[in-house]
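$ ./design --mode recover --in tokens.txt
reading tokens...
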């Protein structure tokens, strides 16, 4: 089985398992989040360590033993991206499965189980026309000040949304044009979405334009921008003005 088919298969399987766990009883929200994370993580980690035993593995829900740092090929997974949305049975939570080679996110699968969607880098959809005005996805609960300032500067509409994967895939799918995140994440939050977004032809980088590099010893990613290439100059210009007080 190809890496692409494997990633898609296990992301979809984890999504179905998460739906089954949620439907299995009347859960208290925090308990559901823990149970879902645990079940999906077990499925994904077992599949990867069994089917790709020579590769490294980094998961939000698995203690890292450091062995991945010596590997060229490393799988980076997030069993449930958007635990709150998962518990609320919204459609903006995701399962992330990425393969990074020498730090580059070369392959990804992002399942949006409650939306009935599976997006993969080896079959990325063609980008449609830009939205007018542009649409920028932001956090449902805590929109970043930088994102709000940029949206105001370029005349973009704000679209509140849940998980990082759902936001990134909204740009891939064309329901949004910009995902600007400045509040910090970890590698598992963005590796798979960035792989899919890059394959679709989107701009994906740090806010200062430097590349996103994965399988680092410190998994913290300070910021990122996923957006249509046509809007990069406007977004970055507005971001500079907002941070220097000139806009």
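writing sequence...
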């Amino acid at each position: 089985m190809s890496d692409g088919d494997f990633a898609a298969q296990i992301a979809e399987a984890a999504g179905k398992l998460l739906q089954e766990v949620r439907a299995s009883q009347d859960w208290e929200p925090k308990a559901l989040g823990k149970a879902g994370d645990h079940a999906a993580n077990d499925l994904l980690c077992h599949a990867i360590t069994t089917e790709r035993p020579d590769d490294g593995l980094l998961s939000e829900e698995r203690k890292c033993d450091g062995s991945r740092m010596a590997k060229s090929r490393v799988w980076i997974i997030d069993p449930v991206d958007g635990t709150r949305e998962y518990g609320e049975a919204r459609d903006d939570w995701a399962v992330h499965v990425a393969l990074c080679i020498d730090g580059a996110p070369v392959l990804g699968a992002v399942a949006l189980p409650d939306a009935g969607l599976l997006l993969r880098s080896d079959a990325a959809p063609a980008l449609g026309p830009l939205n007018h005005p542009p649409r920028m996805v932001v956090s449902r609960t805590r929109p970043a000040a930088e994102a709000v300032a940029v949206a105001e500067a370029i005349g973009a509409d704000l679209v509140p949304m849940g998980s990082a994967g759902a936001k990134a895939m909204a740009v891939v799918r064309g329901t949004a044009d910009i995902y600007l995140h400045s509040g910090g994440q970890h590698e598992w939050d963005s590796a798979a979405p960035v792989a899919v977004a890059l394959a679709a032809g989107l701009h994906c980088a740090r806010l200062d334009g430097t590349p996103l590099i994965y399988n680092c010893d410190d998994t913290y990613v300070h910021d990122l921008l996923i957006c249509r290439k046509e809007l990069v100059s406007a977004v970055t210009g507005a971001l500079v003005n907002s941070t220097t007080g000139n806009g």
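exit 0
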